[in-house]
Design goal:
It is built from 10 helices and 6 strands. With 294 residues, the protein is mainly alpha-helical. A hairpin with a 5-residue loop joins strand 1 (4-8) and strand 2.
Length: 294
């Protein structure tokens, strides 16, 4: 099976036109194998949280007393973006791949509408995290990398200092965010350019608008397809981790905006993710007065 579908242009040149549909099944099977491997690792090999992912000493009573009953983790705007983005992603994947499986409907219209919704939501998110939230809280830092090395050495049975508790976002969340960032920007960028080849109420179809050659358009379709199947595996992993029992408190914080004091003190380092007395502001569902992380 080839990875790319090719066709002959009117000028007799071989040009790429899309990815091979079989790669979708590669993505799905690869995603399932990862989920199974991770579940087996957690169930039979991974060490307990106490010995593997937290420092020996808990938060001091002084710090604990300053932590509110509800620790607000996500603003209403961040949660709304996440919900809209998730719906748009699922709509894009269903409208992209269901027709390939024989489910026939006017998929092109629904696909570009979902693409516009995704694009607008991402633009909103970029402004939101840049000007209102803590832009750098989701990016890996030196402490994340040091602790990842400690966890790996301890998992392999080697002697290593105990890793610290997490910042607001653990390293795996940050790495996943980077993967979604690159895949999402690639699929949005190619999708916006491809909109010139689709008739919409907003502008007339003009496949010659950008002056791209058939080969350039072909590789653009290939990149769009590759990122699409990558998103299938990424979303499978995201749903899996969101439903794992030990991660449900994080999922609930995305729904309700907050987590309990107990979960905060159990999993997070107050020095890396400091919180104080917080109370919801009218219309924000839990934003603190200070600049808050996304």
């Amino acid at each position: 099976m080839g990875l790319i579908q090719w066709a002959t242009s009117p000028w007799g040149r071989e040009v790429p036109i899309h990815i091979a549909f079989g790669l979708l099944w590669v993505s799905i099977i690869g995603g399932l194998l990862f989920l199974i491997a991770h579940a087996l690792y957690v169930g039979y090999w991974a060490k307990s949280t106490e010995s593997h992912s937290s420092v020996a000493a808990g938060a001091s009573s002084g710090i604990a007393s300053r932590v509110p009953e509800r620790v607000y983790r996500h603003t209403f705007g961040a949660r709304l973006f996440h919900g809209v983005m998730a719906l748009a992603m699922f709509a894009l994947l269903f409208t992209a791949f269901l027709p390939k499986m024989g489910v026939q409907f006017a998929w092109v219209t629904y696909h570009w509408i979902a693409g516009i919704v995704l694009t607008i939501s991402v633009i909103y998110h970029l402004f939101h995290v840049t000007f209102w939230l803590d832009f750098w809280s989701i990016w890996p830092d030196r402490v994340d990398l040091e602790d990842a090395g400690r966890r790996f050495r301890r998992a392999m049975g080697e002697a290593a200092p105990p890793p610290r508790k997490f910042a607001k976002y653990p390293l795996e969340n940050k790495l996943y965010h980077l993967a979604i960032l690159f895949a999402g920007l690639a699929v949005i960028g190619t999708g916006v350019l491809m909109m010139s080849r689709v008739s919409t109420p907003f502008f007339t179809r003009n496949p010659y608008l950008f002056g791209f050659s058939d080969t350039t358009w072909g590789w653009m379709y290939v990149l769009h397809g590759f990122t699409g199947i990558a998103l299938v595996a990424l979303i499978m992993a995201h749903v899996y981790f969101a439903l794992r029992p030990e991660k449900l408190f994080i999922t609930e914080s995305m729904i309700f905006g907050w987590m309990s004091r107990e979960k905060y003190l159990e999993h997070y380092d107050p020095e890396r993710w400091p919180v104080g007395e917080q109370s919801p502001k009218a219309g924000t569902s839990g934003e603190s007065k200070a600049r808050v992380p996304a």
